[in-house]
Predict the 3D structure of the following.
Amino acid sequence: MKELLEWMDCIEDSRQQSKVRHKLKNILVIVLFATLANADDWVEIGLFAKQHKEYLSKYITLENGVPSHDTIQRVMAMIAPETMQQLQSKWQELLNSNEGEKLKKIIAIDGKTMRGNTQNGSKPLHVVSAWCDDDGFCMGQVAVEEKSNEITAIPELLNHINIEGQIVTIDAMGTQTAIAAKIKQKRADYVLALKGNQTSLHDDVKQYFDDAELVKKIEDTGYYKKTQEKAHSQIETREYYQTDDIKWLPQLKNWKGLKSIGMERKTLERQDGTKSEEYRYFISSLKPDIELFSRAVRKHWSVEVMHWHLDVTFREDANQTIEKKSAQNLNIVHKFCLSILKTVELFRTKLSARKKRFVISMSAEQHLETVLNF
């Protein structure tokens, strides 16, 4: 982790250096440390810096004193989000530096609206992220002004991340022929959800899996998996089906690399004896491999968990930062800190990320040293 702090010296500062009183590294270190130590807004970040000036001086030079929270926010609004993403990329390199051969990674792409980033009816930022739960970090993100712009944001995001050899999962909004082609162009595979926006394709795949004889055939060929677990006082059963019997699909030629279709059937059995079923349908460039397919389907929801952490662990929706760039940069810091918190153990094992932040806040110097020495 200390390597990352040293690397911050190499980040280019686009500000007029004659007017700079606080180095870019100083601001970044303060925001990073304070966020890990449970600071959620600019005022709290500024208070952390004042309270821990002596400790911060171990890692940054504060010849002009501690910057105010207004200065911290103003500088964060001047940093290009691409620069902040370099921190994530460097962290990814450090985590992967000693990796051996591993399973294909699942890269889940989805968007989240920053609800606090609005004023007088203006539209809040909607950030589309690529989250790899296998590694526990965000590989990249693109900010747009509306959820509907995800369709144009996803190809841009794919252009900026390395997905070669991995599996990309996207919900139904991103199930577009151009996006599938982009993923294959980048030498990756896809598992894309189907809903009403792909009406005929969704209906055709649904009709196929409605045929009991065809479903029984899939079970007999081994491209079927069933899991069961108890959660929230109910029994949750998931059944996965995958087949490469797709030559009949009228839309087959439109989807680059399409090799299989799949279904997930989720059955919930409640304590009162009632049951409910949910069905989800997919297209994929994967050859039939039920373990890989089911892992991709299940892992996609990790990006929703990441969004939940942004709201619950970092209270992002309550943050009223209006300036778009500073809000986006803080969003990147939150994801970066989440990755760090998932990696390091503090106080005792199996603490949630939220409680780890609380533990760090109780004795920042002690616990930040543990994080930095990881």
